[in-house]
Amino acid sequence: MANFPGDLQVIVPNLHRRYSGVTATNRMVAPRLAKLYRAAWFGSDAPEGIARLSTADFLRLWRREAPLIWHARRNNEMIAGVVLRALGWPLKLVFTSAAQRHHSWITRWLIRRMDAIIATSGISASFLKVKASVIPHGVDTEIYAPPADRTAAFTEAALPGAYAIGCFGRVRAQKGTDVFVDAMCRLLPRYPDFTAVIVGQVTAEQTAFANDLKQRIEAANLQSRIVITGELPIEHVQRWYQRLSIYAFTSRNEGFGLTLIEAMAAGSALVAARAGAAELAVEDGVTGVLIPTGDADALVAALEPLMRDPAAALAMGMRGRARVLAQFSLDAEAARIGEVYRPLL
User: Fold this and answer.
1) Which residues pair with 198 in a beta bridge?
2) Which of 22, 122, 126 is nearest to 76 (CA)?
3) Does the keyword Aminoacyl-tRNA synthetase apply (predicted)?
4) Which of 22, 198, 219, 251 is the most exposed place for a label (fewest CB within 10 A)?
């Protein structure tokens, strides 16, 4: 980056120590933004493809005249932007919200101090009480892509059966992991060719919840066919998507729910609870099946036809992949964010 940081246009802050879904979505789109604007990442977990702004470089920007985008995605990043601007940094403040809930007073106060607001869905926008540009998250369709040979991808995992059905995300009630386990305890005895895979971290505060799930799995004698991997490196998670024939999105509430479009991009058939961006991403009955949240009976009813007919599941997965390519690519997301930036610069 020539004359860095003097010619900088955009700062992408990540002021959160724990790796989270917000971090993941930020890491994916930031390198694409860096192709459109002179951008730098400030904070932990910097991805490849975007310059990293050190604290020393950042301090050099104080009282610079040219405007500079500060694109926050969390309250603490909005607070930092408001304070820094008050101290003389030439910041234009942008905030992206994925939350689908009423905001606290402090969040509302901060939002009113932003120069531009982005919401990841119309539902998220409805809770903001201010004008917002609706820009859905995108996914890297080259990384999240169908495998050359799904059977071979499944075989390398050394799981029983011939097909995998997955549910990814932290093991907790909010993600509906219990709904998935309940459905699998009922369905797997009927479909011996399937193995269920839960990919996600079990945090200390969720140990009791996870232990209860394990007891249910043991009571059903399905220990070898409902696999909980724990937290995995992101490249391993990407490979797990390619092993799946079906993906179950079971969240009870969600901001956006990136696993929806990651699974679709990888060509998995999708059954999705109506949380997060499910109704935005899924054409019900075409690129997936929508069900109520927290409903194991509905999950069983939606999954069973796909488990009974893996060829139909594969066809649905390919339609889902086509929808992601058309509407949920990272390049499309970055271009639309760029349209928000342009008048501010």
Assistant:
1) 167, 228
2) 22
3) no
4) 219
Asked whether the beta carbons of 92 and 70 are under 8 A apart, the reply is: yes
Q: What CA–CA distance (Å, rounded) separates 122 from 135?
A: 9
Are 337 and 268 contained in the same domain?
A: no
Query: Both 69 and 101 in a single domain?
Result: yes
Over residues 253-282, the pLDDT tens digits come to 988 888 999 999 999 999 999 998 899 999
Q: List the beta bridge partners of residue 289.
A: 271
d(CA 328, CA 84): 33
Q: Are residues 307 and 180 in the same domain?
A: yes
pLDDT exceeds 90 at position 244: yes
Number of domains forming the structure of the chain:
2
66 and 43 both lie in a single domain: yes
Radius of gyration of the chain (CA): 21
CATH number at residue 277: 3.40.50.2000
Q: Is residue 143 part of a domain?
A: no
Q: Report the predicted TM-score, pTM, of the whole model to 2 decimal places.
A: 0.83
Find, among 301, 297, 250, the residue nearest to 273 by Cα.
250
**Whether residue 36 is found in the same domain as residue 183:** no
Can you point out the beta strands (E) in the chain? Answer: 10-14, 39-43, 51-52, 68-72, 91-97, 116-119, 133-134, 163-168, 194-199, 226-230, 244-249, 269-273, 289-291
In a domain? residue 218: yes
Burial class of residue 133 (count of CB atoms within 10 Å of its CB; 0-12, 13-18, 19+): middle
**Whole-number pLDDT of residue 2:** 42
- In three-state secondary structure terms, 100 is coil
| Count of Cβ atoms closer than 10 Å to residue 339 Cβ | 11
- Is the domain of 20 the same as that of 131? yes
Mapped onto helix, strand or coil, the DSSP state of residue 149 is coil
- For residue 240, being part of any structural domain is answered with yes
Q: Which amino acid is at 82?
A: V
Instruction: Please state, in angstroms and rounded to a whole number, the distance separating the CA atoms of residues 99 and 283.
Output: 22
